[in-house]
Amino acid sequence: MSEQDDDKSASRRAEEFLQVFKRGADFTQDLLKENERLRFSLLQLEGQLKSGSNADNEETIRMRKRIEELEQQKEEILGRARRVEEENADFANRYVEIENENNMLANLYIASYQLHSTLDFREVLQVITEIIINLIGAEEFAIMLLDEKTNKLQAVMTEGLEISEVPAIAIGDGLVGQMAKTGENYFIDQMDNYERDFHHPLVVIPLKIKERVIGVIVIYKLLVQKPKFAEVDYELFTLLAGHAATAIFSSKLYSESERKLSTIQGFIDLLTK
User: Tell me: the pLDDT tens digits for 173-192?
Assistant: First the structure.
């Protein structure tokens, strides 16, 4: 069953519960009116009882029993009404969750499409930067790629700070280097009172192609309106770990091949002149 069918089913159940709740509320009002009438009758009967009427005494007992039954029915109706109200609140919360999930899917689709819409290396880095800012809500971060000659991670794009501020980190060195070595994501446990630490960031997301890590995304600070990570953020981190790595790797290969072709063409032009 599709999410749309689930939404329709949830809405239909919510409407049915609302109808039950309304009927219960109407019935409760009727019970309260009947209860009031019977209490008034009881007072009258108790007055008659004081005058010594045995028949009235039997009627009083009967009325008391009836009132107790009505009181019990009222409590049952009110209990059902409370349960319906709780279920309606659950449906409302579920609706909000579905809306958030739909927005998340739309954002993931757009981000994935943008990542693979260009083979220009700088444009790919810019798209990743926009995703991290707009969808994750990061204020200070760096995209670091592995330099295979030095076996170190070097910052190639930053936001909120200068590239020169971000130190190069060897694979396996410190927290960032360890995450690059293992390929595992890292999220800090407690963000309160955190201050930027290049060797111990809030988040480390290895950029992986299968099991090969080609770089990392490190986040040092979130936007003010972003006190903590949401569920959608972890989905976006997963997206970045794979799709962003593929887009970066493809664009780098394309750029290098373009340079080589340009160089070869230059030699050919020199030889043919």
Answer: 999 999 999 999 998 887 88
